[in-house]
Each structure stands twice: as C-alpha cells, then as structure tokens.
C-alpha cells in the first residue's frame, strides 16, 4: 500500500510539472534548464513537439544511468 501511495504522489507531482511547462513556460518563451530548455528551444525554432524532444533526449540518459547503476541494484 505504501508503494502505491508513493506512485500516486509521483504521478501527481509529474502532472503538476507538465502542466506548468505547457501552460506557463513554453507559451511565454521562458526557459527552465537542461533537457526541458532544449525541448522548448527546439519547439520554438523548428516546431517539434516538446514531449517528443524531451523523451528523445531523456531515454538515452536514462538507459545510460540504468547501465551504470544496475550492478549495484539488489
């Protein structure tokens, strides 16, 4: 049950961040940092959807982290 509550809070927090990105940052031309900023810039320059660039840049980062951390996982 505790894990379920953690996942609910994680999903809720991610939804708030996504809503803030789509309603405040991107429409006003504000940049955050890192992959988010690159996603907003690609959207402004070339019209590529923010989520597409965000996923495209985060998946290789995630896979590299999993590759390096995996031997230490229980």
UniProtKB/TrEMBL annotation:
Query: Mind naming one GO cellular-component term on file for this protein?
Result: plasma membrane
* UniProt keyword Membrane present: yes
Which keywords appear in this protein's UniProt record, sorted alphabetically?
Cell membrane, Membrane, Plasmid, Transmembrane, Transmembrane helix
Any one Pfam family match given in the protein's UniProt record, by short name: YitT_membrane
Q: How does it sit in the membrane?
A: Multi-pass membrane protein
Q: Where in the cell is it found?
A: Cell membrane
Give the transmembrane ranges: 7-26, 46-67
- Keyword Transmembrane carried by entry: yes
InterPro entries per the UniProt record, alphabetical: UPF0750_membrane (IPR051461), YitT (IPR003740)
Under what name is this protein listed?
Uncharacterized protein
């Amino acid at each position: 049950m505790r894990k379920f509550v953690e996942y609910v809070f994680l999903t809720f927090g991610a939804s708030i961040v996504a809503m803030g990105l789509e309603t405040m940052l991107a429409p006003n031309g504000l940049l955050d940092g890192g992959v988010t900023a690159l996603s907003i810039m690609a959207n402004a320059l070339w019209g590529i959807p923010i989520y597409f660039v965000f996923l495209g840049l985060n998946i290789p980062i995630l896979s590299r982290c999993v590759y390096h951390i995996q031997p230490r996982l229980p």
